[in-house]
Amino acid sequence: MLFNSFVFIFAFLPITFLVFWLLKGKNQRYIWLTVTSYIFYGYWNWKFVFLMLASSLIDYFAGLYIHKTENSKRRKLALIISMSANLGLLGFFKYFNFGLDTIRYIGDLFNLSPNLPMLNIILPVGISFYTFQTMSYTIDVYRKKLAPTKNFFEFACYVSLFPQLVAGPIVRFSDIVDDLNNINNFSKAANFHRGLSMFVIGLGKKIIIADTIASIINPMFQDVANLNTLLSWVAILGYTYQLYFDFSGYSDMAVGLGYFFGFRFPQNFNSPYKALNISDFWRRWHISLSSWLRDYLYISLGGSRVGVIHTYFNLIITMLLGGLWHGASWTFVFWGLYHGVLLALYKMTQKFQDSLPRAVQKITTFLLVVIGWVFFRNSSFGSSWTMLKKMFGFENFGGFNLSQGLMIEAAILLIISAFITSFLPNTFQINYPTRARYAIALAAIFITCLILMNYQQAVFLYYQF
Amino acid sequence: MIGKLLKKNEFRFIAIFLASAALFAAFIFLLAVIVDPHNDFGTELFKPLVLTNRTEKMETLSRLQPAPQAVIFGSSRVFGMDPEYVENKIGQATYNASVSYARPEDHWALLNFIVNDLKIAPKTVIVGLNLGEMNDDETEPQTLHNKNLSKYLIGGTEAKTKTYLQTFKKSLNSSYIRDIFLAMFKIYEKKDGVKFLSNGKIDRPFVYLSGSEKKNTYEDTYRRASALFENTEKLNPLRKLYLENFLSFANQNNIKVKLILLPMPEAITEKLQSETDYEAIYEEFIKYEGELASAFSFDFYDFISVKNFGGDENDFDDATHPGMHNLNLITEKIFETKK
Q1: CB-based contact, A31 to chain B, within 8 Å
Q2: What would the pLDDT profile of B131-143 be if each residue is shown by its tens digit?
Q3: Helices A152-160 & A173-181, crossing angle to 10 degrees?
Q4: What pLDDT does A231 receive?
Q5: What does the pLDDT profile of chain B (339 residues) look like in tens digits?
Q6: CA A322 to CA A290: how far, in whole Å?
Q7: Is there a contact between B28 and A451 if contact means CB atoms under 8 Å apart?
Q8: For residue A169, cis peptide bond before it (omega within 30 degrees of 0)
Q9: Rounded-to-integer distance, Cα B219 and Cα B267, Å
Q10: Residues of B with CB below 8 A from A188's CB?
Q11: Cα–Cα dist A165/A40, whole Å
């Protein structure tokens, strides 16, 4: 089910909300949220709810066992079993065919032509997100940073919470354990108006900005070879803003929905295009993922405590795997590698970079990020390379025809997007007032979204990861 | 319950939000109905941007001198059937009254409008029928909201009310909102792609389509043709009733009826056969035609395949619309048979 669908807004959400508040006990509310979340998930493909249930059961029992036993070998074994199960599921559904494809490609290079089967595997929506959530839970218990819950309903509710189930933020158990414990106990601290505002603003970011940009640039990415320099920049800048408004819009909606049920989810985007350097960018972009990678991968590899060269290596490996997390494609791996190298270079030249004027730092960082999106968006290295050549004037020919009307529309959207991302506060910085005129403006945005939704309901970009 | 949950100012905020959203929505709905830019609701307070071809053809028919003695009914698949060609064959002034998305209720309502309201007494009617129009989909809003047609529909008022919301759901989007304002302020009159000659035939020059354009057009029209058979396993009983009423009315008024099952390219038919219940529906229709023939007087032509009338497999404008040459051959054939 999509947040930007009529069935979600007018049926699923009101029913889930009203019944939730009619129920009194903790377990009643955990169960209700779990059941509705499973319905939310199963609306796409009911078979995969069993996968989520299996993942929840494995980590629930692994957490309890690790906490209970003092034997370090057994604790480690339980952790390994849990990690293997989670990564096994993720690996099979997301990377199995990719692995076979790569082996086949390498085999072909050596004229081996291996005859490997291709399985028709459907990638379960959101598996990358909930797998990382359950893994963080078990690792935190193993590291003795977290006491596991004994209540399975509470844990199942945490894993399946529909607001953040399919595209994040990747919420750690420790982030919302207090809210889970107080699920039957909060009333006037709920901040409904904040939740409603964030939901509507997120919906607006997605439908009014991201989807409108997408309608202009998607045909360009299908015909990269025929773009000229100007249109290549229009396409990639358009995607830069589309991705931000799409994904941060989803996160805002998720956080907003969380407020409806008493959950305070962590911030996922903190004005990333205002970043001064690439390290700063990763503290602002998809924060729940970058902090997950830092805490559970980079630090596990030794972080920055292992010497300078090893630190650079750790950074590159972490980002490379972060790239792979986004999808089973070498372009994602390269995108991760690119960011890893940029982070290592920043570490090397931090003093120099920090001494540059702020405007230079911001623009340079933004351009570096934009270049990275070329590999993130294009499906092959060939089209990525073609686009880069066109962007930097090495090839400035192409017959792609963008009408004058669409060109003006694209220019207006890019200017508005640049202004919002560079100068306006983000949704966590807004002090949501309760004044009448603000409620009326919000209602106008909401109705505009409903009208635009009637034309096309586009899937959120991060659903595919 | 809500009162307990919300702080006073939050309660006020959410109440104002909900009331404003409801007001905005009501305002837009009202505006859509009053301005009616696509002539969906038949309000007629503002000049619609797009005249539906039902309204356009009904207006032309009412002004036609001399009144036609032969009338062609059907969907866009017979837009190109040439009244002049018919006229030359049978010596009767002919008008092509085919309208887009036509269903049996359209043939029935239009014939009633011509005979009862315009007091025209045609001698011949030609009905170009496609199997898909006997499906279960809703009556076309253009028919439901046309007061001169809806009065002939079975349960017209009820159906009209029922489809108001469906029409909103189907058409209310950003383009529609833009059209409301264009119609209100008479900024320009939208040029509809389809234009008709004074005899009702489509006015269209021959357009050469390149390979890729042809492929896209074929795919697009195939999708639409295939959608006609979605969830359809047999002929819709109400549409059968409309067809029976049509034939009965024609017989009572001594109107000669020529019913043609229209062709599609062989490859498209095969695709429909493999992906939908097309074959079963066709067989049911042929059986049903036999029953009709025993009750009413009419000529039936099964031209579902070009082979049945010696047509040209390549003369189709897209996946469903027969080209001019095939339509002329069909016309030739249906009057030849008479001889």
Answers
A1: no
A2: 889 998 888 877 8
A3: 120
A4: 92
A5: 555 666 778 888 989 999 999 999 888 888 888 888 777 776 777 777 766 678 888 888 988 888 999 999 999 899 989 999 999 989 999 999 999 889 999 999 999 999 999 999 999 999 999 988 999 888 887 787 777 888 888 875 666 666 666 666 666 777 777 778 777 776 655 445 567 888 888 876 555 555 656 666 777 778 888 888 887 788 999 999 999 999 999 999 999 999 999 999 888 898 888 888 899 999 999 999 999 999 999 999 999 999 999 999 888 888 888 988 999 999 999 988 544
A6: 8
A7: yes
A8: yes
A9: 12
A10: 5-7
A11: 9
Flag whether the ipTM exceeds 0.90. Answer: no
Task: Output the DSSP codes for A151-183.
Answer: -HHHHHHHHH-GGGTTT-----HHHHHHHHHTT
Distance CA B190, CA B39 (A): 13
Residue B326 structure tokens? 């095939």
* Helix (H), strand (E) at residue B124: strand B124-129
Give which of B75, B68, B82, B72 is closest to B105, Cα–Cα. B75
A346 vs A314: CA distance, rounded Å: 14
Q: What is the pLDDT of residues A386-406, one digit of tens each?
A: 999 999 988 777 778 788 888
What angle do the packed helices B104-112 and B237-252 form, to 10 degrees?
A: 30
* B212: closest CA of chain A, how far (Å): 15
Amino acid at A5: S
Q: Give me B33's structure tokens.
A: 């109905």
Is A189 near chain B, with CB under 8 Å?
no
In one-letter notation, the amino acid at residue B193 is: G
* Closest residue in chain A to residue B2, using alpha carbons only: A21
Chain A CB within 8 Å of residue B17 CB: yes
Q: Residue B237: in which H helix or E strand, if any?
A: helix B237-252
Phi then psi dihedrals of residue B74, to 5 deg:
150, -170
pLDDT-above-70 percentage for chain A: 96
DSSP B172-236: -SHHHHHHHHHHHTT------S--B-TTS-B-----PPPHHHHHHHHHHHHHHHHHHTTT--S--
Residue B159 dihedral angles phi and psi, to the nearest 5°: -60, -35
Q: Is A310 a catalytic residue?
A: no
Tell me if A375 sits within 8 A of A212, measured CB to CB.
no
